[in-house]
Each structure stands twice: as C-alpha cells, then as structure tokens.
Write a structure and sequence with these properties.
By secondary structure, this protein is of the alpha/beta class. The chain contains 11 helices and 10 strands.
C-alpha cells in the first residue's frame, strides 16, 4: 500500500496520508511521498487547488515514534531537515491554495503541518494536540511560527507546554482553524470549498498567499508597496480582464 494516495479530479489534487493503522504517523517513506505529491501539484498546471487529508480515523499522529526508537532511525538531524521542513516549505511556497481537511486527530508534526496550510477545516470529532512536550521535544514543523500568529502567544504557549487536546469546536473559536463541520457533512463541505477555490483565478490566489506571507515581516509601508506591485501583476492577467468584463457585462 502506498503511504500517500494522490488523485486529481476536476482541477483538485487530493493527497491522502495513508498509514491508518499508525494513525497516519510519518515515517521517512511517507514524508518523501508527501513531498513528491506536493511537487506534482506545483508542476501540473491543471491542478488549481490541493487538499490534504488522512485515511481512517486520524489526520496524522505526527512522527512515527516506532521509527525513531527502532533500528531504522533516520537520525534526528535528518527528520526535520529532510522530512518536515521541506514539506512546510513546499506547502507554503506552492502557488496554489492548500486546504488541510483534518478528518480526525492531528498530533505533533501532524497538527503543525495542517496549521501551515492556507485553509484549515476539521470534522467536528477531530482534535489538535501539541504532543511534543509529553515526550520531551519542542514543537516543530513550523508550529512555533504559525500557532502564536493564529491564536496569540499566551494560548500557543499554554497549549505547547501543557500538550492539551483541543477539540475542533474550540480550535475554531480560538482562530486556530477556519471552520469545523459536522462529521456527516465534512466530506461534502470540503469538496465544496475545494471546488470554489478551483474555480477562482489561481494566479490571484497565489498573489494573495504571497501578500499574506509578506505581511508577517513587512512594515505597513513595505506591505502597501507589495500590494501595489502584486495588484498590478494581477490586473495584467487575462483572467482579470475576462472576469471584470463579464461583471460589467461588456
Ligand atoms: O526526532 C523526532 O521525533 C522529531 C520529530 C518530531 C515530530 C513529532 O511529531 S513528535 C510527536 C509525535 N507524536 C506523538 O507523540 C503522538 C503520539 N500518539 C498519541 O498521543 C495518540 O496515539 C493520539 C492522541 C494521537 C491518539 O490516541 P488514541 O487513543 O486515539 O489512539 P492510540 O490507541 O494511542 O493509537 C492507535 C495506534 O496508533 C496505536 O497502535 P496499536 O497499539 O493499535 O498497534 C498506537 O501505537 C499508534 N500510534 C499512534 N500514534 C503513533 C503511533 N504509532 C507510532 N507513532 C505515533 N506517533
């Protein structure tokens, strides 16, 4: 069985983490397979939106602790530099929207890989756990960057130190995720979001992603300049010309 399933339909790439018996915990093979799938999403122009989800009852339980305690240990130096950091960089630099569809528990690196996506939605029964402190590690996979920016320093600090499980309902209320959906409508709700994203001008969404990311380090002056530059680029696309013409019924 492949550790990552990849399918494309109606301009949407669906990436499914597929080690359900291990709650989709990441081993080296799965980390590389996810990177390969993300590369395909970048290279294939027919893909307009990407969704990452998990098979079975979990999104991902983070690092496979069996791998790091077994004889196949890839080495601590490699786990971040070769597994998780490239995944975070590929998701955040992909010039297409990436949706994390958190179908179940997301723990450790599994939680933080979800949080670096552009839109994070969850099934009502899903949960998020900064599980690192429980085993004597620090939060990784961009968690110390994204979580305080999403929910504020104090809540991020407490969740990371205490390792408390956060329900999807609480995650939405604190701004960690965009929305949760009842389990019975989760799949169809994710499909609707992806279909909407895929129908929108991909280039404009890519510029939006870039502008948001720049706002993390820019001051207002530089951000206004960046908006100006990106808007000019957006306004020079055929998509803009066609859509504004259609709106004006010209
Ligand atoms: O070098 C480095 O490691 C640096 C990188 C770090 C990145 C990280 O992600 S560190 C954090 C690693 N993840 C965890 O610590 C989470 C461990 N898992 C859990 O705390 C719990 O499993 C969950 C809260 C996620 C779910 O709990 P529950 O009760 O629903 O399920 P369970 O019974 O604990 O697990 C079900 C099975 O999945 C079980 O296997 P079994 O007994 O049925 O054969 C369990 O061992 C396995 N499993 C769950 N998480 C992992 C795992 N196997 C390997 N690695 C896991 N992370």
């Amino acid at each position: 069985m492949s550790t990552v399933l990849f399918e494309v339909s109606a301009n949407i790439a669906r990436i499914t983490l597929n080690r359900p018996e291990k709650l989709n915990a990441f081993n080296r093979e799965m980390a590389f397979a996810l990177q390969e799938a993300l590369d395909k999403c970048g290279n294939e122009t027919s893909i307009h939106a990407v969704v990452i989800t998990g098979s079975g009852r979990a999104f991902s339980a983070g690092q496979d602790l069996g791998e790091v305690t077994g004889s196949e240990h890839p080495g601590f130096g490699k786990i971040l530099s070769e597994h998780y950091n490239p995944i975070v960089k590929k998701i955040t630099s992909l010039q297409k929207p990436v949706v994390a569809a958190v179908n179940g528990v997301a723990a450790g690196a599994g939680a933080n890989l979800a949080l670096c996506c552009d839109i994070v939605v969850a099934a009502k029964s899903a949960s998020f756990i900064q599980a690192f402190s429980r085993i004597g590690l620090i939060p990784d996979s961009g968690g110390t960057f994204f979580l305080p920016r999403l929910i504020g320093w104090q809540k991020a600090s407490a969740l990371m130190m205490l390792g408390e499980k956060v329900s999807a309902v609480d995650a939405m209320q604190m701004g960690m995720i965009f929305k949760y959906f009842d389990d019975d409508v989760f799949e169809t709700s994710v499909e609707a979001i992806c279909a909407q994203l895929a129908s929108l001008p991909t280039q404009a969404l890519a510029y939006t992603k870039k502008a948001l990311q720049s706002s993390v380090h820019n001051n207002l002056h530089d951000q206004l300049i960046e908006e100006d530059e990106l808007q000019q680029q957006a306004a020079s696309t055929a998509e803009y010309a066609a859509r504004v013409k259609a709106f004006m019924k010209m």
